[in-house]
């Protein structure tokens, strides 16, 4: 019996008790695994949430920076122009031209730099014709520089009774987009000297690749229908521009400084023998005067009969001449300034720098002496090089009497800056104060 009982112990009650414990353990383990799994999932979800929040925060930071940068740009001077012209650049140029349309005519000029020889010649031409520019309602727009780097200036020639014009602000004068659109509008897309004339409808009427006498420009403008009506109206209303209003000697002389050379002739009367001889020597020399940028200033008579005449020759060498009366007070001031006696004939050559280069107490039978002196100057040699490249020269027969061969050689070789050889001239003497 006892052995049976001993055998019955491992087979009977003990194993089920152990199984129950094992089962409990498995249940606990399962619960622990599930809890662990839930915890891990929770951790993973939290990590995902954190990553999403960090990403969102970074996005917000980036957007905030971009927004701030955009605001900074809008506060600057470049963005308004860029935005304006990328969206409505054509409209902006149209608006710009609308300021002039129906009111003004334009002379648009491009030049690589302010001291460009061709530009300087053209500028000097129109500056000497203020009244004629003003009565024709001309505004000059000059663009300096290259296509990639330009600035412009605007000069309005107006009569005294007209309200001063201002078309754009100063910062717009350096707006590359506006300038480039303006260039393209009128085909001024090169970096060289170029000029365009428009009528009051802003349509181009003429193109110029080289400097031209303003008389030719004025003659063309006077054929426009708009100008014909304008002239009739100005005539009815008695509108005139007086070039010779009271002005100082300094203002008068500054008009020509660095632009023209003055040949000043003074005589006690128009019948004076020396003066008559000098006039004969000047006859037929319009082309030579024009190419050398010479203006003749005649100071005549004494006492109550004092008078003065200014003769302007086109720089392209044409034979036409414009004459202006010089007021009496200026005739007196000029004689005093240059220490010219009104009792005797005398002639002075004044350079572009405003200084007297030579004086002539008696008539110059041959103007070649004066021409040689002028052609020996550094500035004149630069002018000759430009004129030669443009094919600007006087007819040979005009030089037959005045040493054309020597002058032509001056074009080829240039003259030395040596003024001593002029001292031996019989009629001409270097001026010394």
Automatic annotation (TrEMBL):
<keyword id="KW-0732">Signal</keyword>
<keyword id="KW-0964">Secreted</keyword>
<comment type="similarity">
    <text>Belongs to the CCDC80 family.</text>
</comment>
<feature type="compositionally biased region" description="Basic and acidic residues">
    <location>
        <begin position="19"/>
        <end position="62"/>
    </location>
</feature>
<comment type="subunit">
    <text>Binds to various extracellular matrix proteins.</text>
</comment>
<dbReference type="Pfam" id="PF13778">
    <property type="entry name" value="DUF4174"/>
</dbReference>
<dbReference type="GO" id="GO:0030198">
    <property type="term" value="P:extracellular matrix organization"/>
</dbReference>
<keyword id="KW-0272">Extracellular matrix</keyword>
<dbReference type="InterPro" id="IPR025232">
    <property type="entry name" value="DUF4174"/>
</dbReference>
<feature type="region of interest" description="Disordered">
    <location>
        <begin position="1"/>
        <end position="87"/>
    </location>
</feature>
<feature type="domain" description="DUF4174">
    <location>
        <begin position="252"/>
        <end position="383"/>
    </location>
</feature>
<protein>
    <recommendedName>
        <fullName>Coiled-coil domain-containing protein 80</fullName>
    </recommendedName>
</protein>
<dbReference type="GO" id="GO:0010811">
    <property type="term" value="P:positive regulation of cell-substrate adhesion"/>
</dbReference>
<dbReference type="GO" id="GO:0005604">
    <property type="term" value="C:basement membrane"/>
</dbReference>
<feature type="domain" description="DUF4174">
    <location>
        <begin position="96"/>
        <end position="230"/>
    </location>
</feature>
């Amino acid at each position: 019996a006892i052995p049976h009982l001993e055998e019955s112990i491992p087979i009977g009650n003990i194993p089920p008790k152990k199984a129950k414990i094992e089962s409990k353990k498995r249940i606990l383990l399962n619960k622990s695994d599930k809890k662990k799994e839930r915890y891990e999932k929770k951790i993973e979800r939290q990590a995902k949430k954190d990553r999403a929040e960090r990403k969102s925060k970074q996005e917000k930071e980036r957007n905030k920076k971009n927004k701030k940068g955009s605001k900074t740009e809008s506060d600057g001077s470049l963005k308004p122009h860029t935005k304006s012209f990328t969206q409505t650049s054509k409209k902006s140029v149209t608006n710009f031209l609308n300021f002039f349309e129906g009111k003004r005519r334009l002379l648009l000029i491009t030049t690589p730099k302010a001291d460009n020889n061709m530009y300087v010649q053209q500028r000097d031409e129109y500056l000497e014709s203020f009244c004629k520019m003003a009565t024709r309602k001309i505004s000059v727009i000059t663009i300096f520089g290259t296509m990639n780097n330009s600035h412009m200036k605007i000069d309005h020639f107006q009569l005294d009774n007209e309200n001063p014009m201002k078309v754009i602000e100063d910062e717009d004068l350096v707006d590359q987009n506006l300038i480039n659109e303006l260039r393209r509008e009128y085909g001024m897309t090169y970096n060289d000297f170029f000029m365009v004339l428009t009528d009051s409808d802003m349509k181009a009427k003429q193109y110029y690749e080289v400097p031209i006498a303003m008389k030719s420009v004025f003659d063309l403008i006077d054929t426009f229908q708009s100008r014909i009506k304008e002239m009739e109206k100005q005539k009815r209303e008695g509108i005139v521009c007086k070039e010779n209003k009271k002005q100082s000697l300094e203002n008068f002389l500054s008009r020509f400084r660095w632009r023209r050379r003055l040949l000043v002739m003074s005589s006690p009367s128009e019948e004076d023998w020396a003066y008559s001889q000098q006039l004969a020597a000047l006859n037929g020399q319009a082309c030579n005067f024009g190419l050398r940028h010479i203006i003749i200033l005649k100071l005549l008579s004494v006492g109550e009969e004092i008078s003065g005449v200014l003769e302007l020759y086109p720089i392209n060498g044409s034979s036409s001449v414009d004459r202006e009366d010089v007021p009496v007070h200026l005739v007196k001031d000029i004689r005093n300034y240059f220490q010219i006696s009104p009792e005797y004939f005398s002639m002075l050559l004044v350079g572009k720098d405003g200084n007297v280069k030579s004086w002539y107490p008696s008539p110059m039978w041959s103007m070649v002496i004066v021409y040689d002196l002028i052609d020996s100057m550094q500035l004149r040699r630069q002018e000759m090089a430009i004129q030669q490249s443009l094919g600007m020269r006087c007819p040979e027969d005009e030089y037959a009497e005045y040493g054309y061969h020597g002058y032509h050689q001056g074009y080829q070789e240039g003259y030395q800056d040596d003024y001593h050889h002029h001292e031996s001239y019989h009629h001409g003497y270097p001026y010394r104060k």
